[in-house]
Amino acid sequence: MSKDAIKAEEVLVKAPSAPNYIKFLFGGLSGMGATMVVQPLDLVKTRMQISGAGSGKKEFRNSFHCIQQIVAREGPLSLYKGIGAALLRQATYTTGRLGMYTYLNDLYRERFDRNPNIVDSMAMGTIAGACGAFIGTPAEVALVRMTSDGRLPVAERRNYTNVANALTRITREEGLAALWRGSLPTVGRAMVVNMTQLASYSQFKTYFHDGPLQMNEGIKLHFCASMLSGLLTTMTSMPLDIAKTRIQNMKKVEGKPEYRGTTDVLLRVARQEGIFALWKGFTPYYCRLGPHTVLTFILLEQMNQGYNKYILGKETSTGL
C-alpha cells in the first residue's frame, strides 16, 4: 500500500473530536454547576475574611458560628446571596482559564512534539490563571460586594439587586476602572492557585494510582487527589485571597482608599489582627475548593461522555 493510501485510510478511521469551543463551553458549565453546590461556603469564607477589618475585633468564633449568624440575621436563602455574580465569574474566569490552558497545551505539543512535563504545566497554568482572572475580575468584585453586604449596617449597605445592577452601579458611581479594583492580588492569587493546583493534583493522582494504594482510575482517585491538592492550594493562596477580598470590598475614607495595595493589606492584617489572620476563613475556603474541583471534574467528564455518545456517536470519552 502506498504512503498516500495509508494517509487517506488514517484520515477515514480517525475518530471525530469535539471542537475547541465545545471544550471551553463545557469547562464553563462544569464550573458553574459546581458553584451552585459550594456557593454558601464561598459566602462564609468572604464574611470571615472581612470580619475584623480595621478594628481587629473577631466577629465570628468559627465557620459554623458564621453560618448560624447569617441564617439568624438574614434568613437561609441569604447563603446564596451573590449567586448571579458567582455564576458570571465561572462563565468568565473558568472558561477563559481552560481556554487559554488548552490553547497553550496544543501549541506546546505542535512545537515540541511531546507532552509537557510538570514544570511546563506549572508555567502554562500560571499564564492561564492570570488571563482568566483578569477577564473575571469584574464579576469577582461584584461577588465580593454582594456576599459581604449583609454584614454592614443598614445605612451603609449597597443593596445591589443583582449582578447586572452591581456592575452598572459600580461603573456609574466609581468609574469603569473600579470593576478591576484588586486585579493585581486577584491575578496573583489565580497564578498561585493554578500553578499549585495543576502540579500537585497531577503528582497526587500519580502517587495514588501507581504507589502503594494502587487506586483505579475513577471518582475515588479524583476525589482523594483533589482534596489534597485543594489543601496545599489553600495554604499557599489564602493570604493573597484575603488581600483581594479586602481591596475589592473597601470604601473610601475621607476621599482616600482604605488600602494602598496588596502589601499594605497583608502588613496591616498581620499587625492589627495577628499573622494567622492571613488564613482567616481557612475551613470554608478549603471545604469549598476541594469539592469544587471534584465536582467540576465529574461534571466535565459527564458532559464530555454525553457529547461523545449522542453527538459524535462514540462510546469513549476524551478524559481529563
What is the topology?
Elements (H helix, E strand, L loop, with lengths): L2 H11 L6 H31 L12 H12 L8 H30 L5 H31 L14 H12 L8 H28 L8 H31 L2 E2 L2 E2 L4 H12 L8 H29 L10
Antiparallel strand pairs: 1-2
Helix pairs in contact: 2-4, 2-10, 4-5, 5-6, 5-7, 7-8, 8-9, 8-10
Keywords: Antiport, Lipid transport, Membrane, Repeat, Transmembrane, Transmembrane helix, Transport
InterPro entries: MCP_dom_sf, MCP_transmembrane, Mito_Metabolite_Transporter
GO molecular function: antiporter activity
Number of helices: 10
Give the rounded overall mean pLDDT: 79
Strand content: under 5%
* Shape verdict: globular
What quaternary form is this? single chain
Largest sheet at a glance? 2 strands, antiparallel
Secondary-structure-derived class: mainly alpha
Structural Rg: 22 Å
How many strand units?
Answer: 2
The termini sit apart by: 36 Å
Query: Strand order across the biggest sheet?
Result: 1-2
Q: What's the helix-strand series? A: HHHHHHHHEEHH
Task: Outline the low-pLDDT stretches.
Answer: 5-14
User: What is the percent of helical residues?
Assistant: over 70%
Written description of the protein model:
The chain has 320 residues and is mostly helical. It has helices spanning 3-13, 20-50, 63-74, 83-112, 118-148, 163-174, 183-210, 219-249, 262-273, 282-310; strands spanning 252-253, 256-257. It has a domain at 181-280. The chain contains ten helices and two strands, in the order ααααααααββαα. α2 packs across α4 (83-112). The longest helix is centred in the N-terminal third of the chain and has 31 residues, at 20-50. The protein is globular. The model is unreliable at 5-14 (pLDDT under 50). It is found in: Membrane. InterPro entries: MCP_dom_sf (IPR023395), MCP_transmembrane (IPR018108), Mito_Metabolite_Transporter (IPR050391). This is Mitochondrial 2-oxoglutarate/malate carrier protein. Belongs to the mitochondrial carrier (TC 2.A.29) family.
